């Protein structure tokens, strides 16, 4: 039986990484990983700290850099680590080398070169660079095709024109005499260099071939694994964006998961997916001719330096494009980057405390960089694909880039994060543990403040922690700046500026432990921003205005109120205001919140951001290019839905065929709004509240003020903000925040109301400003004994500022007995929790009346 999600716990070990690539799990569960720009970092399990070990000088243009790391099979004896990186300097070469790693130090002087591969550094893309050993001690290295992938006109890169050699994949991946676009298999020698193991694709000495080749015909074989039992190799190959169609009519923009039972040719750039054939595009004439024969492909390019006749092409095991796949429906749609992870065998983890359920025995794990999922793939008795199913689908992963099992059965996962070619706050090293029987507690930390000047006293609470096993007794321990505390709450004073990790461990009475951590930033205080007004801060009225005055201060900076970003607008759907108030959306585009949210929910963030360069243009750049052009809205809608290329270089944009045209229009309008000139609000003024329409009760006005400081004492810049949110003064009674009444819904009348009101019943609305409120109206139904509505401030027994008698019986002439009654309100200032308490001490247990809505009047 498939285990439920409550048996897994996920712990973030490190975050804010700079393009993590591959990791190696060392003895004691220390994790060493490499970052593309050259960083080598070590997570120490015993101390829970992340250390910088080394920094390679690398060429990190296009997709090159420090890409791979793996430990020698005899690491505990020889302490050898292997690295694959693009060597810095003018010589375009990528190097596989070996170094010793002792006492948490990488001994760079011990570097021994194993293999060097000449490359080109003019055009992007595809470097791969993953490393793995098999159980026989053979080392595998994946290499990308290293070919110009951005000038293909929607076809495959087979440009045979003179001077276009770097745009011809027939010179690399389809070339038996080139090491790019391959998975290589070699046997490293102790003195350096390597031997060729028996059984590679081409026997040593075969004319026009390289004996290192195990797999050829790969485009970007980014992640792969080797089945320790069968010896099969599984690799994910990241696919192209093409306008050519397969035999079933689907665009051949396939990513692949391949099963390699023996060395072979896997089709690129002539075939893809289930050996679907690409037509041969002639870049000189612009004509599309017939494709190759998968059973006997011929590489007839003038740029080919290897064999003319290639091995028969092998089809993929799993393939999928940008649309929903009819063959593999679980994979989803949109952008894609397929990865092959490890095959799990229970017998390899006999005494491991965190080994997975036997349910996953013999299953292959595959994962998706763009779509953020992990799948478990099952095979039939012959080893062929049988089915796939989601794994850990209660979590969303942020661009998983490496997945490995530790000896204790835990899963370690590297997440690259949101933006390409940049350091990401959500780039993480995480550990996932599975527990059968007793489940681990879930640790959760709440702090009263995360930022502040030194000394900073922080109150810590574990109140959000829980245990899925009923009856377990929990204990709590804290580690903060080297000090230990016990109990569900604790307090710690940080005396010096710095960034501190606070760790909570929650233990149950059966030995289960769950951990969580949070960061405290000491040395920079968030700026104070306030919007002052004499108007009401909760409601708007027809024909009214909102006066405002902004104040701002910061302990570390000198602040001018002119530097505070102000935004004001009317939001037709009031619940959308939460997107702005959460800080996740652009406060200056209040009219386009739906478009912002759609962009955030789709795969767009994998290639674009508002103002930071990634593999695609920024939204601001798009807005500037298309500003004021006729028909641009429909043009961009079509591009979002259908995909395309050519406007920002040749890198193709993924289609989104499942997206409704109306949703695409919302996205386009938001993007184009980023190029509009906006009138800057002065720090003091008066705003007319005239954008709502008669009968509109859902919309809200939002005035937002936000200021970002300069950072201080090594702490990054912090935001200070305030806002005024004004809603319609008619409030549905059933929308109360708390109460002890019932709600009735009448579908025929399209209404809901509060009923079951008895003596002592109440409804509560939190944080309501009564400034300038002179009366409150109630749409009430005299359906019982009648009674008094008392409005108390801040508690049931708080001061009474309004009373209204609602008589018993029916109101004559009112449909169904409903009628508005109005009571006066004593003047009060500031926001309060409003308790509407219903009183009739003589009614016993009888119902008093029902209420449909309340209305706050300023007259």
Task: Spell out the key features of this protein.
Jelly Rolls; Immunoglobulin-like; 38% strand; five-stranded mixed sheet; 55 strands; mainly beta
Structural features, described:
With 859 residues, the chain is mostly beta strands. Among the domains are: 446-522, Immunoglobulin-like (Sandwich); 531-727, Cytochrome Bc1 Complex, Chain D, domain 2 (Orthogonal Bundle); 730-857, Galactose-binding domain-like (Jelly Rolls, Sandwich). The protein contains six helices and 55 strands. Strands 10, 11, 12, 13, 14 and 18 form a six-stranded mixed beta sheet that branches. Helix 3 crosses helix 6 and helix 5 (632-642) crosses helix 6. It is globular, with a radius of gyration of 32 Å. Residues 144-155 have a biased composition (Polar residues). This is Carbohydrate-binding protein. Pfam families: CBM_6 (PF03422), Cytochrom_C (PF00034), GSDH (PF07995), PKD_4 (PF18911).
Give the helices and strands, then pairings.
Elements lengths: L7 E8 L4 E6 L5 E5 L3 E6 L4 E7 L10 E6 L3 H4 L1 E7 L6 E10 L2 E14 L9 E6 L5 E5 L38 E7 L5 E2 L17 E4 L6 E4 L6 E5 L17 E6 L3 E2 L5 E2 L3 E2 L2 E3 L4 E3 L28 E3 L17 E6 L20 E5 L5 E6 L5 E7 L8 E6 L5 E5 L12 E7 L11 E2 L3 E2 L3 E6 L12 E7 L2 E4 L2 E6 L3 E11 L4 E10 L5 E5 L12 E9 L11 E7 L5 H5 L11 H9 L17 H8 L5 H11 L18 H13 L10 E5 L11 E9 L10 E9 L2 E3 L5 E2 L2 E5 L4 E5 L6 E8 L5 E7 L5 E7 L6 E7 L11 E7 L6 E9 L10 E8 L2
Parallel strand pairs: 14-18, 32-38
Antiparallel strand pairs: 1-30, 2-3, 3-4, 4-5, 6-7, 7-8, 8-9, 10-11, 11-12, 12-13, 12-14, 15-16, 16-17, 17-23, 19-20, 21-22, 24-25, 25-26, 26-27, 28-29, 29-30, 31-33, 33-36, 34-35, 34-37, 37-38, 39-40, 40-42, 41-43, 43-44, 45-55, 46-49, 47-48, 49-54, 50-53, 50-55, 51-52, 51-54
Helix pairs in contact: 3-6, 5-6
């Amino acid at each position: 039986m498939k285990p439920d999600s409550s048996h897994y716990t996920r712990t973030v070990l490190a975050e804010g990484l700079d393009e993590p690539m591959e990791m190696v799990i060392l003895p004691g569960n220390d994790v060493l990983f490499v970052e593309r720009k050259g960083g080598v970092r070590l997570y120490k399990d015993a101390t829970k700290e992340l250390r910088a070990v080394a920094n390679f000088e690398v060429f990190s243009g296009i997709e090159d850099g420090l890409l791979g790391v793996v430990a020698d099979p005899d690491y505990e004896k020889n302490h050898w680590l292997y690295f694959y990186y693009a060597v810095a300097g003018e010589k375009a070469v990528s190097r596989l080398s070996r170094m010793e790693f002792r006492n948490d130090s990488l001994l760079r002087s011990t570097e021994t070169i194993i293999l060097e591969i000449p490359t080109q550094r003019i055009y992007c893309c595809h470097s791969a660079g993953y490393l793995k050993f098999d159980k026989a001690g053979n080392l595998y290295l994946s290499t990308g095709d290293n070919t110009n992938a951005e000038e293909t006109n929607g076809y495959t890169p087979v440009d045979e024109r003179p001077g276009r050699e770097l745009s011809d994949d027939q010179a690399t991946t389809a070339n038996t005499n080139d090491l790019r676009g391959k998975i290589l298999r070699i046997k490293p020698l102790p003195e350096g260099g390597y031997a060729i193991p028996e059984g590679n694709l081409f026997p040593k000495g075969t004319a026009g071939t390289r004996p290192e080749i195990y797999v050829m015909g790969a485009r970007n074989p980014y992640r792969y694994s080797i089945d320790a039992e069968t010896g099969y190799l599984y690799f994910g190959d990241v696919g192209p964006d093409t306008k050519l169609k397969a035999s079933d009519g689907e665009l051949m923009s396939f990513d692949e998961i391949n099963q390699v039972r023996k060395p072979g040719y896997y089709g690129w750039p002539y075939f893809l997916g289930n050996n679907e054939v690409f037509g041969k595009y002639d870049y000189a004439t612009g004509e599309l001719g017939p494709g190759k024969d998968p059973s006997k492909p011929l590489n007839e390019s003038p740029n080919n330096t290897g064999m003319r006749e290639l091995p028969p092409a092998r089809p993929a095991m799993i393939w999928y494009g940008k649309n929903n796949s009819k063959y593999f429906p679980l994979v989803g749609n949109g952008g894609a980057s397929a990865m092959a992870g490890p095959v799990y065998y229970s017998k390899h983890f006999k005494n491991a405390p965190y080994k997975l359920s036997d349910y996953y025995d013999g299953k292959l794990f595959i994962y998706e960089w763009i779509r953020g999922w992990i799948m478990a793939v099952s095979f039939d008795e012959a080893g062929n694909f049988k089915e796939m199913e989601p794994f850990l689908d209660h979590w969303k992963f942020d661009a998983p880039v490496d997945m490995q099992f530790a000896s204790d059965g835990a899963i370690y996962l590297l997440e690259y994060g949101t933006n390409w070619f940049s350091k990401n706050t959500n780039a993480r090293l995480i550990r996932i543990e599975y527990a059968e029987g007793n489940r681990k507690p879930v640790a959760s930390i709440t702090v009263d403040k995360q930022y502040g000047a030194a000394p900073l006293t922080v109150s810590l609470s574990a109140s959000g922690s829980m245990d899925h096993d009923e009856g377990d007794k929990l204990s709590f321990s804290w580690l903060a700046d080297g000090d230990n505390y016990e109990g569900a709450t604790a307090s710690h004073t940080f005396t010096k500026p710095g960034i501190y990790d606070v760790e909570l461990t929650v233990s149950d009475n059966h030995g289960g432990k769950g951990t969580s951590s949070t960061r405290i930033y000491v040395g920079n205080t968030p700026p104070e921003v306030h919007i002052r007004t004499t108007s009401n801060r909760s409601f708007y009225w027809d024909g009214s205005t909102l006066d405002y005055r902004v104040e701002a201060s910061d302990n570390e900076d000198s602040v001018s109120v002119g530097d505070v970003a102000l935004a004001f607008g009317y939001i037709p759907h009031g619940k959308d205001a939460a997107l702005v108030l959460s800080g996740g959306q652009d406060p200056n585009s209040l009219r386009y919140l739906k478009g912002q949210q759609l962009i955030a929910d789709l795969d767009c963030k994998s290639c674009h951001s508002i103002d930071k360069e990634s593999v695609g243009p920024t939204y601001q750049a798009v807005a500037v290019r298309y500003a004021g052009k006729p028909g641009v809205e429909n043009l961009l809608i079509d591009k979002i839905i259908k995909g395309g290329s050519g406007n920002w270089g040749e890198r193709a944009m993924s289609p989104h065929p499942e997206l409704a045209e109306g949703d695409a229009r919302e996205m386009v309008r938001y993007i184009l709004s980023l190029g509009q000139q906006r009138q800057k609000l002065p720090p003091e003024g008066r705003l007319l509240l005239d954008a709502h329409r008669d009968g509109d009760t859902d919309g809200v006005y939002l005035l937002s003020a936000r200021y970002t400081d300069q950072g201080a004492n090594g702490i990054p810049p912090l935001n200070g903000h305030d806002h005024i949110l004004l809603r319609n003064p008619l409030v549905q009674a059933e929308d109360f925040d708390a109460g002890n009444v019932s709600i009735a819904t009448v579908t025929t009348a399209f209404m809901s109301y509060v009923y079951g009101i008895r003596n002592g019943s109440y409804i509560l609305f939190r944080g309501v400003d009564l400034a300038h409120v002179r009366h409150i109206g109630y749409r009430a139904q005299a359906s019982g004994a009648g009674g008094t509505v008392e409005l108390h401030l801040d508690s049931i027994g708080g001061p009474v500022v309004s009373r209204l008698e609602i008589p018993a019986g029916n109101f004559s002439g009112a449909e169904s007995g409903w009628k508005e009654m109005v009571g006066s309100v004593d003047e009060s200032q500031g926001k309060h929790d409003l308790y509407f308490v219903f009183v009739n001490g003589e009614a016993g247990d009888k119902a008093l009346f029902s209420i449909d809505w309340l209305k706050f009047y300023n007259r």
